[in-house]
Amino acid sequence: MDLYLVRHAIAEPRDHDRWPDDSQRPLSSDGADLFRRAARGLHRLGIGVEAVLTSSYLRASETAVILVEEAEWPEAETYRALEPPAGVPASVQLLETRAEPSLALVGHQPDLAELASLLLAANEHAVRLELKKGGVMCLRFTGRPARGAGVLRWSLSPKILRQLGS
User: Fold this and answer.
1) pLDDT category of residue 166 using cuts at 50, 70 and 90
2) What share of the chain is helix, strand, coil (3-state, %, to 5)?
3) Cα–Cα distance list, 40 to 25, 49, 158 (Å)
4) Model confidence pLDDT, tens digit, residues 79-104
5) Which of 33, 42, 103, 104 gives a 20 to 30 Å CA spacing to 96?
6) In whole angstroms, what is the distance from residue 147 CA to residue 123 CA?
7) Does residue 163 contact residue 134 with C-beta atoms inside 8 Å?
8) pLDDT tens-digit profile of 101-135?
9) Which of 72, 43, 53, 75 is nearest to 3 (CA)?
10) 146/131 Cα distance (integer angstroms)
11) What are the start-end ranges of the E strands in the chain?
12) Cα–Cα distance between 39 and 18 in angstroms, integer?
């Protein structure tokens, strides 16, 4: 299985007056525009997936919609396991229920980096990984994802993805 970890694109700044519920904070218009170009980079590389799972937070679901439109990935399925503060254990449980040969998770930091560390080194704090907003990381597994069983194939910043998409 190839597992793609996608951090949501750049969102509007936190503002309790505008978004008392932070889960409703959207992508900024610049963040959406920049991620459209990054998603085109994924498409240009020929990267596709069988399924996309996303947090229901607006900024994550908007990022997933851009992946559908620009990278031609499938419509996203929403899972609470990918929302803060569900954390790494909930994401691992979710992965245990999936069998697609390629799968993308669209979510948040630090959960995605900690999940990658757990899947690569069997400890969510063993490997310090940086996944910038709009960045994508690919982990490969022989069989289903399991603790310590992953291999990091690549990790691309949104800047590199945008350059590939131009």
Assistant:
1) confident
2) 40, 20, 40
3) 24, 14, 11
4) 999 999 888 999 999 999 999 999 99
5) 42
6) 8
7) no
8) 999 999 999 999 999 999 999 999 999 999 999 99
9) 53
10) 20
11) 2-7, 51-54, 76-78, 102-107, 136-140, 151-156
12) 28
Place of tokens 């240009």: 44
Token representation of residue 119: 């899947």
Local structure of residue 12 (DSSP, 8 states): P
User: 49-73 pLDDT, tens per residue?
Assistant: 999 999 999 999 999 999 999 999 9
Tell me the domains of the chain and their CATH numbers: 2-12+23-165 (3.40.50.1240)
Angle at 7 between CA 50 and CA 78, to 5 degrees: 50
The answer, yes or no, to whether the previous bond of 85 is cis (omega within 30 of 0) is: yes
52 - beta bridge partners?
Answer: 76, 104
